Structures are given as structure tokens and as C-alpha cells.
Amino acid sequence: MANTKFISSAPHISSRGFTLIELIVVIIILGILSVTVVPKFLTSKGFTEFAYRSDVIAKLRLIQTKAMQQTNSTYCHSVLVTSTKLGTPDNCSSTPSFASAWQDSASKLQVDSNDNITFTTNFSGNTFNFDSMGRPSCNAPCIITINGEQSISVQIESEGYIHAL
Predict the structure, then answer these.
(1) How far apart are CA 130 and CA 137, in angstroms?
(2) CA-CA distance, 80 to 40, in Å (whole number)?
(3) Strands (E), the chain
């Protein structure tokens, strides 16, 4: 018996591509992402509090910096916090208040009426001052809480360090 080799006349075809299982796995992953992640990018639900917290920190640091630079006693370096407003009051007397007609400024923040956000504090009278060293007059740590979908806070330490919690 002779050794015979079978030689195929058909050329060897090499195909490159994805298998059916790989395609199904990718479709499932895309489906999960579209249900969970995409809605978070299309709405601001839950992110509004973080934006307001950044604004609160910026306003507090501005008022604190002014207090450290403007040591003349004629300037008001108080911070007044109401349920929807935060900043330097228009009336800096023994009972500080905001003017009835809101005036935008770099040291004031007002919650937009479309946002379901409120401010609360842990200090009495919802007001405090910064001294010339940038330290708050409230019993530190002073905490301002931003309430919305979730509650997040800004804390002012006794030395004047302002940070998010």
C-alpha cells in the first residue's frame, strides 16, 4: 500500500470577525449602559446640590478673603444664610438681612426657583462674621447643609479652613 496524501483543491479561507457570542455580549453591555448611565448625563437630578456646594464654598472664600484684606471696620464681612440665600447681607446691623429686591453680586448666592434646594446651618441666628485672620465667629465647626435629592455640607473650621464634607 502506498502512502497517499489527500490534497484539497479548495483554497484555505481565513475569516476574521466577531463570533455571535461576542456580538451578543457587546449588545448586552450597551443595553445596560444605556439604561443606567445615559439618563444621568441627560438630567441634572442629584447633581444640582454639588453645583450649589461649589458656589457656597466660592462665596464663603471670597468673603473670608475680603475680611483678611479689608481690615477697615466700615466693611461688612458677615455671612447670612437663609433657606434660599447665602452671602454678605445688605443690612449689616445687629439683625442682618438681605434687601427685598435681590441684587446679584460676587459675594451672594440665591437658589434658582426651579431647583428644589434649601440651606440649613448648625449655628444660631444663621449668621457669622470673619475676623481679620479669616476665622469664623460661629462655634466651629460651622456647617452649612445643602438639601435637595441628597444632603451635602460645607464646613468651616475654627482656623478658617472652608471645605466640602
Answers:
(1) 6
(2) 33
(3) 78-81, 85-87, 108-110, 118-121, 127-129, 142-147, 151-156, 162-164
pLDDT (tens digit, 0 to 9) for every residue of the chain, 165 residues total?
556 665 656 566 666 778 899 999 999 999 998 888 776 666 656 678 888 888 889 988 988 888 888 877 677 788 888 888 888 887 777 777 777 776 777 878 888 888 888 888 888 888 888 888 888 888 878 888 988 888 888 988 888 888 888
- Domains in the chain, ordered, with CATH? 48-164 (3.55.40.10)
Number of H helices, E strands in the chain: 3, 8
Residue 17 has phi, psi (to 5 degrees) of: 170, -175
3-state secondary structure of 58: helix
From CA 79, how far away is CA 101, in angstroms rounded? 18
Let me know the angle formed at the C-alpha of 109 by 97 and 101, rounded to the nearest 5 degrees. 50
* Rounded CA separation 120/126 (Å): 8
Give the full edge-to-edge strand order of the sheet including 151-156.
118-121, 142-147, 151-156, 162-164
State pTM to two decimals.
Answer: 0.69
